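[job 4471] stage=fold_predict status=RUNNING
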Amino acid sequence: MDRRSWTRDAERLFAASRRGVITVTQLEALGVPQETSYRRCLPGRPWQRLLPGVVLLRTGEPTRRQLLEGALLHCGDNAIITGMESCRRQGLRREAGTDEPVHLLLPAHLKTTSCGYVLVERTTRMPVPVHRDGLPLAPAPRAVLDECRRLREHPPIRALLAEAVQQLGLDPAELSAELETGSRRGTAVPRAVLREIARGARSAAEGLAMGLWRRTGLPEPVWNFEVHDEHGRYIATPDAWCDEVAFAWEIDSYEFHFGQPGYAATLARNNRYAAAGIVLVQTVPSRLRSEPRAVVAELVSAYRTAATRPRPPVKLAGRSE
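[job 4471] inference complete, writing structure tokens
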């Protein structure tokens, strides 16, 4: 394509791009002078600049995929997407934040730095990427922990790690091994949370619940063990179980327990508790933060109630899978 024809063949420019994203160097090879590329990105003109030397061949809000393509073009062929973007594209159910950066890994010897919406992390431990829809992604364990290292507060780290275990099927031992292999920077809280998960906390709420239970002064329960009736029939797998008084505590999140068909399953579970004579307390996760004193009072009251009646003939059946 020569310098006189490119303006009449916009389709060829787009075909050479990545979903409309292209570098100024590529445009120059197609006959578009650099000064023309930059001029067409000025306000009111038909293109826009995404990053230094990277152009979107249209105006308007870029899509998330176009931002990703721009970031990869900016950083070169060695770049790998990590963090929340990689997690989400491997199955984590989270919406992208409007200000969420594109987090990329690059080999340590390269000099490209963070710019605009792109967060560049240079590393001596470049992972072998997995590919989804043509994008190079860091494997899920690495991506999850790269995101955790950027967080500072305990609750979002706990939530992310619990979701990674639940939704991505990651093994806490695998995550712990990845932590041990990588940099120790920013790993103190993830290490503590993974210890909670390894003890049986299968959701972010259960991690909070473990801490809240200790404020009750009650005997320590067991977490996520199956309970059967006297005939060996399955009743439930409560989040917390006090075997000496047959008292169950369930942390019931709206997403996982009260959507259809989860609502019907929760009702059936509660009916089994009642038929077996088990004292049950249900708590939604939001109350663990918003009403901790009230939750503690409810647990203490229910435990005392359970302790005053004859214990029903129910039994633990071993840790659930």
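[job 4471] summary: Confidence is low (pLDDT under 50) at residues 254-261.
[job 4471] exit 0
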